[in-house]
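Usage

Read records sequentially. Each one opens with the input sequence:
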Amino acid sequence: MKKLFLFVVCSYLLAACSNQEKKEDESSKKPDDMTALYEKNLAVIKSAIASFENKDIEGWAANVADSVNWTSPAYGDTVTSKAHWKETLAAYLANSNDLKLTKTNFLPGVDSTTHQPDGSVRFYGVWLGTSKSGVHSASKFYGSYDFNKDNKIIFADEYFDVGGLMAATTPKK
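and closes with the structure output:
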């Protein structure tokens, strides 16, 4: 009985070691592929930002899939479509001058299960601008973006203090 028990334990240990080696082999290939994918998707994000800063909403839209699911940073805003995102950004552009993203920190996104890079992009930054009313603003921003096989944004989750920005830049009566 002891020999049988010892045999079973040794079998499990050997199986665990061989599975671990297999996982390490698979994971050794994945980071290079994911780094390349991240770099492609990062270029998309940077292109979208540059288009937005240049008030080129169509250039921005070229980086976004028609089926995108956008999570607005505005409290209570539940519309998630590309058209609504585009409309919202156009309103920011119409009410601001010289929008510029500063203090950026671009980072690769990670798979929530494996915690390994998955090709997605996230970033922190500070949006600077001047409202049409002449008020200068600086809004801290965070966004996370997923992409399809064509390197278009298919999911966007954005965070900043929309209410604070609106209160600060709305002319006082």
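Summary fields computed downstream for this record:
- The longest helix spans residues 2-53.
- The first strand starts at residue 64 and ends at 71.
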